[in-house]
Design goal:
Layout lengths: L1 E9 L3 H16 L4 E6 L4 E8 L2 H8 L3 H4 L4 E8 L15
Antiparallel strand pairs: 1-3, 1-4, 2-3
Length: 95
């Protein structure tokens, strides 16, 4: 398994995002491939996954309530990530 980082850029509809957030967070808690996730201070989020491929992460994210809503995520990107060093490096799967 490899590590992938997904980034979300949100639309400006913060009221809609707040309304759907509980379902989004509940969905994330049910995903065993999520290593860590959370919002950014730039109206978006970072989600880190352990998966076989970026395509697998994309398919999983297609079921996120924030994505299904159609009015919350303006842009999504998934890229592979090689964790090399740092205080938390040992917490991530090695490539």
């Amino acid at each position: 398994m490899a590590v992938f980082v997904a980034t979300y850029s949100y639309t400006s509809d913060s009221e809609r995002r707040s309304a759907v957030r509980p379902a989004h967070r509940e969905w994330l808690r049910g995903q065993p491939s999520v290593l860590v996730s959370g919002p950014t201070d730039a109206d978006g989020a970072v989600l880190v996954f352990e998966a076989a491929s970026a395509a697998e992460v994309e398919q999983l994210l297609d079921h996120d309530p924030f994505v299904l809503d159609g009015e919350i995520v303006a842009e999504r990107r998934v890229v592979g990530w090689s964790v090399v060093t740092g205080r938390l490096a040992d917490a991530f799967p090695s490539a």
